Amino acid sequence: MLMSEDKISQEEIDALLNGGAMPTADSDAAPASETEAPADAPAAVAGSGSSSSQFDDVLTDIEKDALGEIGNISMGSAATTLSVLLGHKVNITTPSVSVSSMSIIQEKYPMPYLIVEVGYTIGIDGNNVLAIQAQDAAIIADLMMGGDGTNPDTEINEIAMSAVGESMNQMMGTVATSLSTMFNKKIDISPPKVNLIDFGSEDKVSEVLGQTEPIVCTSFRMEVDGLIDSEIMQILPVEVAKEMVESLTNGSQEEPEPEPAAAPPPPPAAAPAPAPAAAAAPPPMAAPAQQMAPPVMPPPAGGYGGYGMPMQGMASNIPVQPAQFTPLNMQPVQVNDANIGLILDVPLSVTVELGRTNKSIKEILELTNGSIVELDKLAGEPVDINVNGKFLAKGEVVVIDENFGVRITEIASPAERAAKLQ
Questions:
Q1: Where is the composition biased (Low complexity) (predicted)?
Q2: Domain that holds residue 14
């Protein structure tokens, strides 16, 4: 028993090795609390891991599959656009959809990221964030400015940010066009904003999305021709994700628009109505003339009558016809196409005008490889389609098999087109 009472505890041994004083009975509580702290640490980690499990019922498996399909199609189109801009093959594939919180994402990716803020203006209500690792953004900037991407700058300066911002602008514009096609409605976005942040210390994403929890994170694998093999993330609020799923499943049923075709017929039927009212106007004119005539004697039987009566007799012999008015409905301009077949093979120059700007001679002389010229049109705004230098239509820029194209959204009538081509 004496041996057991004289044993030195582990805390006392640690205190002797550290050169400290021997702990007393009053100070035993402090080491005890310190030894209990590590036991709580795994519980905290488990709590952060289990916090993702509490979001399992936010989205169903069908909704996650739908979001994955939306991301797969839209990012596939964006990859084609980025391939054209970089001059290298780009693949963005294998979307993985999860519901999480921003704190969990920050713990998982504590590194610098380039985030692209995108706000939907038409078709979808909400914001969207695209996150790319800073080192991948540096390679994209180097390729955009004419480099080979093998030795990019470690720091992203203002010029590199502008170059990456332009590529992201084109990508998100293509994504909006793809969403318009999938949802069967117009989708417009505001010009994207690019920021470089550290996920480990800043929470810019929550500020952009409006402090919403939980959030939907869709991860994609991005490969750029042997230069990049990484992942990018699309982060959006749950409300926006559910709206996208609803638009995908119900969008095709919301657009039966037969009204414009039925609207024109009613005006011609209503136009002839004023004619009878106008025809009734002459009779009142005869009444005042009859009242203003001086009193006369009754005409003798079998005669022509007195002074006033011949006027009445002549008036009765004047033929009266209802007034005819030309209907006020618009008639389509008739284009004489009798000999149009003779000129069908004549080539015309079709140009698409993205925008214009004015530069001084000094600014023109300062242009070099990688310089960016800002135009007077906003991203996503319809472009003008001209034929032989004359306006024909407006449309949206699309990408078809690695080539740019234009989807016509507004076009002049055939008569107006023929008049402008003369």
A1: 23-53
A2: 7-33
